[in-house]
Each structure stands twice: as C-alpha cells, then as structure tokens.
Amino acid sequence: MAELLHHNSLRKFTFSSIKKTRTKGIQKLSWRPVQGVLTEDIRRAVVKNGKDSLDISRVVNGMWQTSGGWGRIDRDNAVDAMLKYADAGLTTFDMADIYGPAEDLYGIFINRVRQERPPEFLEKVRGLTKWVPPPVKMTSSYVRDSINVSRKRMDVASLDMLQFHWWDYANTGYLDALKHLTDLKEEGKIKTVALTNFDTERLQIILENEIPVVSNQVQHSIVDMRPQQKMAELCQLTGVKLITYGTVMGGLLSEKFLDTNLNIPFAGPPLNTPSLQKYKRMVDAWGGWSLFQALLQTLKGIASKHGATIPNVAVKYILDQQAVAGSMIGVRLGLSEHIQDSNAVFSLALDEDDISSIQEVTKKGKNLLKVIGDCGDEYRRA
Ligand SMILES: NC(=O)c1ccc[n+]([C@@H]2O[C@H](COP(=O)([O-])OP(=O)(O)OC[C@H]3O[C@@H](n4cnc5c(N)ncnc54)[C@H](OP(=O)(O)O)[C@@H]3O)[C@@H](O)[C@H]2O)c1
C-alpha cells in the first residue's frame, strides 16, 4: 500500500483539499479528507468530480437479478415493481449492457415515469449502467457505438452514469476507452463517467490522466472489507466515491441463513442463484461456514437490539464506511420484494458496541486482500 499511495506519486492531483508542504527536503502532500457529500435527504448522496455530479439514492436497486438465474422475470410485473421501488424513494437503478433485459426494462420504466409521474419525480430517478467490453482496440467509433446502444435501450438522451469495466490491465486500452467516454460526456451523451471493479493502482493512473471519474463500483460487505484497505484512502484523498455490491452477499447475510449448516449436503436453504454461489465462495475464502454463522449470530443480536434485521445491519455498516456513497441491494423484480426493509436502513444507527462486536468476529477471518487481491482482482486472475 505504501508505494501505491506514496504521497509524491499523487503530486499531479490539483484537488483543492490537497496542500503542498515540504518536510526535510521531501515534497509531501498534506491533505484534509474530502468529506462525503451527503444531501439534505439522508437517503441520497452526491458523487462528483470537478463539474460533473450526480445525486443518487444511497440504497441502489441492483438489476443483475433480471438476467436469468434468479427466476423468470415477467416484463410488465418487473416494470410495475420498479415503479413501486421508485415510489418508495428507492429511485436509483443499477444495470449493465450485459445484464440481459435490464436496460430495456429501464427504458419501459422511464417512459412510464414520464407519462404517469410528475416532472419533479422524474428528476429524482437515476439509471446507472455499465459497459463491459471485450479488451479489443478502443477506437472512438467503437466506444460511441456501444454507448449509443445503451442510450437507445434505456431510452435516454444522456446516460446518468456509465461505469466502465476492464478485463486486462496488461492492455492499456482502458485509458483510450475512458478518454472517449469523457468526450461523450462533454457532448452530453453521458452525465458522469465512473468505474467498476478497478483496483487502487489503476484508479490512481486514471485520475493522473485527468479522467474525471466520480465513483468505482466494488464488492464490499462485512466479510469483504478489501475496499477499506487501500481503495478508500485514495478515494478519501481525491473525492471519488464507492458504490458497493455484494453488501448482503446475495442474501447470505440474512435471517434465512442463520443457524443453517451448509457443510451438510441439502441441510440448508439452496444456493440457487449466481449471487448466492458467488458470495458463498467469498465466505469459504474468508473463514468458512462456522465463522460466518458466528457473524450472523452477532448481526442478529445487533439487529434485535435495534428492532432491525440482519440485512439492515449489513447495509448500514457498509454505508457508514469511508468513501461509500451507495450500496446496492439486488432486486428480483416481481418475484420478491424488500422495499420496507431496504428503507429501514435509514432509521438504523449503529453504536460503538455494535461496531466492536462485529469487528470482534471479522478479525478472525482471513485478510481477503492477501487471499484474492485488491478490488476487482477476482475478475482478472488467469
Ligand atoms: N460490478 C459488478 O461486477 C457487480 C457484480 C455483482 C453485482 N453487481 C450489482 O449489484 C447488484 C446486487 O447484486 P448482488 O449479487 O451483490 O446481490 P445482493 O444485493 O447481495 O443480494 C440480493 C438478494 O439478497 C436478498 N435480500 C435483499 N434484501 C433482503 C432482505 N431485506 N431480507 C432478506 N433477503 C434480502 C434477496 O433475495 P430474494 O430475492 O431471494 O429475497 C436479493 O435477491 C446487482 O444487481 C448488480 O447491479 C455488480
């Protein structure tokens, strides 16, 4: 970490919060942390960089769950459900070009909002998408054509946020792509350029190239605290925010999995979604099912004390972390619904006892930064 975040290596930053001083002949950048930009509404936060900014709801509806593997999604029921989430104040949706029908559903949804809700409601709705291209040559026309597909599917003139994913750092085409995305932003086709699954080293390079990314979407949960080890420090220095996924670990961090034993075949609830399978692997890498049960019991104790639920505690703990603007909760639109519980996160305040009892358990887990690597490295292992 020291070499990555060596203060001299951040010398190109021009953020107003960074002040140059000289100590014993070594140029040192002293800084005051860039504060999280929360809006008056505690349920919303602003992500910004320079003149670009976007306010989002702090609990974001994740739409990977529409892409197959989580049950059959009925188009009309899904759009009705999106309206219900938005009506309840959960007005921000996260998609990707590769999430099956997600962007198309948003296109239908946003048209219903335009027709059936007042203009001030439309103002609050946000559609964040991702672009996950193969690591081919990133020409201006390739980037433009790809972004136009998402604009068309989502039926918006300008994408609220385009989060960019890259598979292979050996190929520096990611910088070309981000420069073209910045041009499209200047043209008004994108409001904010952002990242997903980038590591700290590459985020720093991107910022040094003066690409004004506002956020990085990363896996972050009570089990996966990797973003707080290196990434959050750079975010704090530069004002870039984190939007988190895997925060309820596909539902593993819920009462449903409390007091279950997945070590015995068929004994527990089935791991029948791609998220549950993904995050069960995380549990295995971190410390195994017994330690995870100890964590669930601790979380249950905290939840009961506050009249809350395990997912409430899991999400609030991450929303309270340094640099986190928003946390995603995946939605199985029209199949299951957690609107009330998701909103209950905002009336929960965790106290010092809660935090230390969580840390008492999590310190028994392995350091995932050492086991897996920095944010997103799980997508880049050979
Ligand atoms: N950038 C990336 O690489 C990346 C990767 C993964 C995900 N994501 C994003 O993150 C979003 C979330 O996906 P995820 O895989 O991380 O899933 P997740 O949010 O950890 O899990 C969602 C599941 O948790 C359960 N759940 C949610 N709230 C609950 C509550 N209050 N009580 C009980 N159970 C609850 C629900 O299961 P039931 O529906 O069965 O009740 C829901 O389907 C995705 O949609 C996507 O937008 C991004």
UniProtKB/TrEMBL annotation:
UniProt cross-references to InterPro entries, sorted A to Z: NAD(P)_OxRdtase_dom_sf, NADP_OxRdtase_dom
Domain of life of the native organism: Eukaryota
TM helices/strands, residue ranges: none
Ranges of residues in domain NADP-dependent oxidoreductase: 59-361
PANTHER family (alphabetical): NADP-DEPENDENT OXIDOREDUCTASE DOMAIN-CONTAINING PROTEIN (PTHR43147:SF2), PROTEIN TAS (PTHR43147)
Name of protein: NADP-dependent oxidoreductase domain-containing protein
Organism for this UniProt entry: Prunus persica
Lineage of origin: Eukaryota, Viridiplantae, Streptophyta, Embryophyta, Tracheophyta
